[in-house]
Write a structure and sequence with these properties.
heterodimer, A: mainly beta, six-stranded mixed sheet, five-stranded antiparallel sheet, 11 strands, globular, B: mainly beta, seven-stranded mixed sheet, four-stranded antiparallel sheet
């Protein structure tokens, strides 16, 4: 069993839909990251959180430390949101990554 | 300002050859990380440098892999006697200090024939 599990693996949505991607982990962590990876490999850090909730534009990330679960929400999704979204947890000094959720948003 | 850069962007080599992959972190970042991403998978940790020293190399798969950061800035990942299974995207990231947000480079796509 992977230490970081994401669901769903693939997600298709129509423009404007509300998107939720889930992440569960089984190890102790000091922080959780949500990352975005576009075709071609570039990875961008979206959020780093250790408790509660953070919001940036149309993106919202929440974490429940007791349940070892985090969610990434995208409101009013747009085709440019199409990418792979990766959850990663910091365990000691290294990141442990989930396998990613591939999101495609169609106009 | 300049982000993390990696060279080469693509590398094709033959089985058994030696390769070096370079990472230039963001200036002033003391922490540097190497990850490997196989097709369809999330990245996997290889090694973490704090300054010049390897603080955690537990992710290096075997002794064919080695990394250095002699002056606490640029890092080189070295792979000896490459195997086809080494084919992957090798990602480098840096952070201002231990525990900070990691900024990723574009990766080096390695193909071992």
């Amino acid at each position: 069993k992977n230490e970081v599990e994401q669901s769903p693996q693939n997600l298709t949505a129509q423009e404007g839909e509300f998107i939720t991607i889930n992440c569960s982990y089984s190890v102790g962590i000091s922080a959780l990251h949500w990352l975005q990876q576009h075709p071609g490999g570039g990875i961008v850090s979206l959020f780093m959180l250790s408790s509660g909730k953070k919001k940036h534009g149309r993106l919202i990330a929440t974490i429940n430390i007791q349940e070892k679960h985090s969610s990434l929400h995208i409101t009013a999704s747009h085709p440019r949101d199409s990418a792979v979204y990766i959850c990663a947890v910091r365990n000691t000094d290294k990141l442990i990554f989930g396998t990613g959720t591939r999101l495609q948003v169609f106009p | 300002g300049a982000g993390v850069s990696q060279t080469p962007s693509n590398k094709v080599t033959e089985k058994g050859k030696y390769v070096e992959l370079r990472c230039d972190p963001i200036s002033g970042h003391t922490a540097l990380y190497w990850y490997r991403q196989s097709l369809g998978q999330g990245p996997e940790f290889l090694i973490y440098f704090q300054g010049t020293g390897a603080a955690d190399d537990s992710g290096l798969p075997n002794d064919r892999f080695f990394a250095v950061r002699p002056e606490g800035s640029v890092s080189t990942l070295k792979i000896q006697r490459t195997e086809r299974g080494d084919s992957a995207v090798y990602l480098c990231a840096s952070s201002l200090d231990r525990g900070g947000t990691q900024y990723f480079g574009p990766g080096t796509r390695l193909l071992v024939l």
